[in-house]
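User: Quick sanity check before I run a bigger batch. Here is a single chain. Can you write out its predicted 3D structure?
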Amino acid sequence: MIQREISELRRHMTPERTNMTHIYGCYVNGEKQIISSYEQSLAVMEKNDVEKYIELMKKALSGKIGRTLNNLEFTSQQVIDGEEHKLLMALRETKMEDARLRETLCRKIIEVLSLNDQSNYLILLAYDVYDVPFKGSDRQTQMDNSDETFRYILCAVCPVKSRKAELGYDTGENQFHLDQSVPVVGAPELGFLFPAFDDRHTNIYNALFYSRDTAMMHREFIDAVFKTKSPMAPGEQKEAFTDAITEALEGECRFDVVRSVHQQIRDRMEEYKQAKVPEPLELSSDDVAEILRQSGVEEERVDSFREKCGEQFGEDAGLDPGNIIESRKFEIVTPVVKVSVVPEYTQQVKTKMVDGRMCLVIPVDGGVEVNGVPVYTENRAVEAGDALD
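Assistant: Done. Predicted structure follows.
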């Protein structure tokens, strides 16, 4: 799925537009015991409750592809006879109404899932139908026509925590008393959509997985529910890319080389954004290898990077540029100094030998503040090396 398709589904998920009829819940404590299971009809709920439930389900489709949202792909064999795929299809075909199937899914989740703080959590399940409106080549929606009906199931796993007791006003006694804490449901930590909504059509070979914490992929959850290959977390991708660069370049991993690599990747990201291509940008190891060449790295080191990249990410893997570099800042860290530079001005940062020591030289034409106090610089460059003396 791409961002545009996710946004389209999210627009559909409002109390006025959704075709959800029921919400199914399974409340689990930190010891993996089911406290309660329930089903509620949206038709008899209070309006505020309906809005809150839909908001929670909708948040399981929030964020960006490659970060909080990741596409998962089933193999052809799994679609033919895989246990996990059969269960998801059965839940969809029965419109989530079969209590036995719901319990099977919930127990798969409960068996492997523990949230970081060992808190209680609520598994929310829903079935929805989206009549996909026809869109012409000009992308103008014509609501009186529909290409297909997209039938899907949604899961959101939400932490349940006790709220701190506070003084509350008792209208009957006209006084404030300590209001005992009650469990409240938080935003989803993880969830999924099945099947995928690819190219505005049903794709039973894919699912969309959500993890609020981009540092965690909840691999145990993915293995239990989907048994598919788990994507690398954004933080893991960045670390793997850094390892590949540093191990391959060794002595050629200089300041100017790393700056050039980051700048060229950022430039590609900006060009892609300006072109308004709906599919997310991916870089191959060959793309980065060419960037290394243009940054002055010798061919032997470039070949070594390709090899290291294959070891870290797998052969022919696509790299998400937003996960392998910091696109919004350029940070330089030494044992005693940390400097954060706006990416557009990285070319102004230089390295220079000063009194036999390698220093950073940063133009300060626009003025300098020290702990919020403007200081006089006599219109000369301030060398970071001065701070080390």
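The first strand starts at residue 22 and ends at 28.

User: Great, the batch can go ahead then.
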